[in-house]
Amino acid sequence: MSVLLRDPRFKELLKEIEGREGLSGLMEGVSLPELVQLACLEGKNRAIHLSKDGAEGVIYCMDGDVVHAETGSLVGTDAFFELMVWENALFHYLPGSTATRSITAPYNFLLIEASRLIDENKKRGGQGQLIRLLIVDDSDFMCKALTSALEERLDGAEIHTASHGQEALNLLMERHPHLVTLDMNMPVMDGDMALKHIMIRSPAPVILVSGLDEGAMPRAMEFLRLGAIDFVPKPEPGEGIEPVADRIAALARRAKALKVVNARRAKRVPQAGRKIKPSTTVEGIAIFLGGVGSLLEVAKVVPHLPDDEDIAVLFVLDVVERLAAPLAHELDPLSPFHVRSLDGVNSIEGGTAIICPISTPVRLCQEEGCWRPSAVGDAEPGIAELIRSCAEGFGVGCALFVLSGAEIPEDAVEHLVSRGGRMLIQEPSCCIDEESTKRIKDLGLDDGMFLPEAIAEPLEAWRRAFRHALGHRTSGDTDGPQVFQE
């Protein structure tokens, strides 16, 4: 394939970059395959940086070949072909080199395949590269049911299945899926070993799809520490596959933008050994709002909650409702706080941390001297209502901590800040879904960033600040909170 060699624009492009560092602009007059061919025919070290609709990518060409490409969580040929179908992207064609070599195929082969994908993309109306999924489950029935349900929800998706870990690894290297669903219990190679290999060989977003039997949650937490991003329980007897497929499809649509390499593994922590005595007096409330990738971050935060019986914590998370109770039970021993699920709570007490699924949003109301959760409508308005009600009730004693993947209405944050509350954002570079975190950061309303594993310091700074504003002494000036042994 020698498109540019037959095109008079080739000489014009060479002349234009001669004596300059490179080219920049919108890809309207020149296509990305033409830029790649130009870089290869030049024989120089070039980096083609691309951006479109908030997404970014780069292709490196060195010594006449394409050697590396990356965008989002994709690397190598997958990233190259994903970038090739971007239309009207902004490009920067610059000198550049890399020590990483993720592509070995000849550039002319890559361009031929890219042309085919571009034609297919145009026929689909510019929807981009097809989503590739890998379902790993030893149940043939589950594989077939999920495949059928996902094909209905993801038009044109390429779906493969594997019955055990070893078969999954073979398909992983052949097909490079954008998303993997993984059963924790399988023959030949079990789920945990398969997950370790996936994260080493070809990191991809992995969703645990397994039964929620006794002992499932502790094991799921270990899988999350190894790199899984979510846990979706299999249907109970008599339930349909639809809710499971809905959640997987929603994550699949976002999979290309997820960066599992950003996740920082969590260390196991010892049990807290003591509990704060719950208090009906609540002077401060901390809201941790999390989306994709936040389950692991919550496990990092819980052990570092402050010893203060006048503070309550709400973990508002994008988790399956059935997980709230077992998740709270798993996290409770790790913290001086009492960790509970929302469905078992009638009032919000100091020294308690409540797991609240986003799908069952609430607002806080004060009744008879107690703060009580009150159900509201849909999830997005519900999040805004929760933040507003907490801001109204606690003012400077309200803090919002934004975790990976969270989405939040701007007006709710503005209301929080106007009432003296604080918002802190998880450092985007350690978020699996960093784009949503960056969007919130771009609002310019935050008081800084934090790392979940180092949350103790920002929590203490907020606690001291609001206690000072309320005229109270901090724990450094008192005998500390009451505790009791469980």
Break the fold down into its secondary structure elements and pairings:
Layout: H1 9-17, E1 23-26, H2 32-42, E2 46-52, E3 55-62, E4 65-71, E5 74-75, H3 77-84, E6 90-95, H4 107-123, E7 132-136, H5 140-153, E8 158-162, H6 165-175, E9 179-182, H7 191-201, E10 206-210, H8 216-226, E11 230-233, H9 242-254, E12 275-276, E13 284-290, H10 294-301, E14 311-317, H11 324-331, E15 338-341, E16 352-357, E17 362-367, E18 370-375, H12 379-394, E19 398-402, H13 410-418, E20 422-426, H14 434-441, E21 449-450, H15 456-469, E22 483-484
Parallel strand pairs: 7-8, 7-9, 9-10, 10-11, 13-14, 13-19, 14-16, 15-16, 19-20, 20-21
Antiparallel strand pairs: 1-6, 2-3, 2-6, 3-4, 4-5, 12-22, 17-18
Helix pairs in contact: 2-4, 3-4, 5-9, 6-7, 12-13
Would you mind describing this structure in some detail?
The chain starts with 8 loop residues before the first helix and ends with a strand. Helix 2 (32-42) packs antiparallel against helix 4 (107-123) and helix 12 (379-394) packs parallel to helix 13 (410-418). The radius of gyration is 25 Å and the shape is globular. It has 15 helices and 22 strands. It has helices at 9-17, 32-42, 77-84, 107-123, 140-153, 165-175, 191-201, 216-226, 242-254, 294-301, 324-331, 379-394, 410-418, 434-441, 456-469, and strands spanning 23-26, 46-52, 55-62, 65-71, 74-75, 90-95, 132-136, 158-162, 179-182, 206-210, 230-233, 275-276, 284-290, 311-317, 338-341, 352-357, 362-367, 370-375, 398-402, 422-426, 449-450, 483-484. The strands form 5 sheets. A 7-stranded parallel sheet has the order 15-16-14-13-19-20-21, with helices on both faces. It has 3 domains: 4-123, no CATH class; 132-258, Rossmann fold (3-Layer(aba) Sandwich); 275-484, Methylesterase CheB, C-terminal domain (Rossmann fold, 3-Layer(aba) Sandwich).
